[in-house]
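Here is the promised in-class demo. Please do not try to memorize the tokens; focus on the logic of going from shape to residues.
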């Protein structure tokens, strides 16, 4: 077999066999197939799509590119959550300690920033010393000690996703149902979990902008997980505007701690508690989702979730003092404001542009080798439905380098859509639930 022939086959809308997919994925993971050929194949898949059997083959080949963990030595159920990605989406940092404090085990393998969206691993690395590259042995040790561990794909676990994910990030090959499903499910099925809650985003800040596309992605992932014997549900949740008030790495760690302290913005708090509730329910810790929600609220109210977060940071080598002293997180030297050019109401946002602006200022990658500036961030002062006066602050930008500041400001200002009256529809964050 030759990679060039398989690229041509997909380019010409052909169907690849499992052996052919295996040849490409294993060859790329081993380093025998170069980035440029994998990138060409990914773009062909993005344009031509994959049928169901190709998708199943890709997911399984990626899953078995590394070890599939079991945690027989750790009692109780193992559960996790994964989001398809958005702007300001930091719920993993909040719900992992909530659920671990509530008695379940959370072995979480996450990703870095992808496209315009932020990644859990990059956020955690804003905490000085925090190590997301634990060996398998260290991962197991942290899990046993505190009930949660958050790491990236490794050479041992989901190595194919580690490489393909980084390549997709910089080759505009992210927004594709098959590639997203294979990426997410190969990581999650390798973790050794019993149950998985998926947060499938929909709207202008999501990879899937239309609700029907998000539902299709959710159905495919739920079916894949169930076929592998896992309990899986997917919540379709709105990403028409950033989640919470903060985006950017230090900013998002700060805001997550706020929620764990019982404060923080209502949308972020509610979604984190609801996702935790589903995790408790699927992990058979509670008999209903409602009971799960009450347990999640208790873990926050009693401070047990915050303590768990401190413990998790400490065990992964991080500086737990950031919990009480957020100034220990990387801080930007400069601030700039984006103000409204009109008076009226915010009726919509082009949320993806916020993520693009953030990446442009150093908070994301344009090339695989790029280093993230964890201090770069955005603070949002207005939400959809809010009234705004001309000259009033919309967004505060935290930055270190002003090379692309003007361009970022234009993108941010252009993200807001305003009108003379507030939108008539009430915004619902959880749109539907698939697989319940
Ligand atoms: N999250 C992932 O892990 N992979 C994707 O492809 C998209 C979101």
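The designed amino acids, position by position:
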């Amino acid at each position: 077999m030759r990679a060039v022939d398989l690229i041509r086959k997909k380019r010409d809308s052909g169907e690849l066999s499992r052996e052919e997919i295996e040849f490409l994925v294993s060859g790329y993971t081993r380093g025998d197939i170069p980035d440029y050929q994998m990138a060409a194949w990914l773009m062909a898949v993005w344009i031509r799509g994959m049928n169901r059997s190709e998708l199943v083959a890709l997911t399984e080949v990626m899953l078995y590119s590394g070890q599939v963990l079991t945690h027989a030595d750790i009692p109780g159920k193992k559960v996790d959550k994964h989001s398809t990605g958005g702007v300001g989406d930091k719920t993993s940092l909040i719900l992992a300690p909530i659920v671990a404090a509530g008695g379940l085990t959370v072995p979480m393998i996450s990703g870095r920033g992808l496209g315009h969206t932020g990644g859990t691993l990059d956020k955690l690395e804003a905490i000085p010393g925090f190590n997301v590259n634990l060996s398998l042995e260290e991962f197991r040790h942290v899990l046993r000690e505190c009930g949660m561990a958050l790491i990236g794909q490794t050479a041992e676990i989901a190595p194919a996703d580690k490489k393909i994910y980084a390549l997709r990030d910089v080759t505009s090959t992210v927004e594709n149902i098959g590639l997203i499903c294979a990426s997410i499910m190969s990581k999650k099925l390798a973790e050794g979990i019993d149950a998985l809650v998926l947060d499938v985003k929909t709207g202008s800040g999501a990879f899937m902008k239309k609700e029907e596309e998000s539902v299709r992605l959710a159905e495919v992932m739920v079916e894949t997980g169930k076929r592998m014997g896992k309990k899986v549900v997917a919540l379709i949740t709105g990403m028409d505007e950033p989640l919470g008030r903060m985006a950017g790495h230090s900013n998002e760690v700060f805001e997550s701690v706020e929620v764990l302290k019982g404060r923080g913005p209502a949308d972020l708090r509610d979604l984190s508690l609801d996702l935790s509730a589903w995790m408790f329910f699927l992990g058979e810790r509670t008999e209903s989702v409602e009971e799960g929600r009450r347990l999640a609220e208790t873990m926050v109210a009693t401070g047990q979730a915050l303590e768990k977060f401190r413990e998790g940071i400490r065990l992964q080598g991080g500086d737990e003092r950031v919990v009480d002293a957020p100034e220990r997180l990387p801080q930007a030297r400069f601030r700039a404001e984006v103000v409204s050019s009109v008076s009226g109401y915010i009726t919509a946002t082009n949320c993806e542009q916020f993520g693009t602006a953030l990446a442009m200022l150093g908070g994301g990658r344009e090339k695989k080798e790029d280093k993230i500036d964890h201090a770069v961030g955005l603070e949002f002062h207005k939400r959809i439905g809010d009234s705004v006066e001309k000259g009033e602050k919309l967004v505060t930008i935290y930055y270190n380098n002003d090379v692309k500041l003007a361009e970022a400001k234009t993108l941010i200002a252009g993200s807001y859509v305003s009108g003379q009256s507030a939108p008539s529809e009430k915004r619902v964050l959880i749109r539907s639930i698939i697989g319940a």
